[in-house]
Structures are given as structure tokens and as C-alpha cells.
Known about the structure:
Blueprint: E1 3-7, H1 11-24, E2 27-31, H2 37-44, E3 48-52, H3 60-68, E4 77-82, H4 87-95, E5 100-103, H5 108-120
Parallel strand pairs: 1-2, 1-3, 3-4, 4-5
Amino acid sequence: MAEILVIEDEDNIAVALDFLLTREGHRHDRMATGAGAVARIRETRPDLVLLDVMLPDVSGYQIVQDVRADPSLADVRVLMMTARGSVVERRKGLALGADGFIAKPFELSELRSEMARLLEKPC
Length: 123
């Protein structure tokens, strides 16, 4: 069982993630905006962050960049999610330090396998 922080502003996607994470047996919490996300990650030290790119207040790109700038958060895995799943967006997310990148809408099986890959990854 992993501790997962979902940072997603779209309620319908958050509900689907809640269903999946509950069914998989993970503990999870959600933030609907990017404001305060890095502080929350420092505070809770989740095993995985499911991070939307387009958020109110602060972009997911800024959040992943700030997380990677903090050496004490090196073991936190970040899976970015975006409706703009272009190669350029993917490259940018990975270059800023995301561990994975998934385009929305995603198949639950695709998300499940990507989460499993990241949670098995050694620090």
C-alpha cells in the first residue's frame, strides 16, 4: 500500500482516481489547486504524486521543478497527467524531473501499470 497525493482540479478525473486508488488499496489525498502543493509534499512525503499539468494558481511543471530542486524530496515519484499529451509536453515534463507522463483521458489499466512501475522503482 502506497501513500499517494493527487493534485487534480477536474472533479470527474479526481473521482475516477479516487475509485482506482481505493480499489487498489492505496491511501490517498487530493488537492484541487497547485497552491501549497510543494509544502504539502514536504509535509506528507507521499510515495507518489499524480500531478495535473494545468492547474489553477501554479502549473504542474512549476511544482515538479520545485520538488526536484529540493534534495530532501528526491525519493518522491511524480507522474504527470495532461490533456495536452503531445511529445513536446511529455519531453518538457520529463526534462523538469517527472518520473512518468500520461495523457488524459487515460485507460485505467494504463494508469495502473504506470503507477506500479513508478512505485517499484528504487530511489
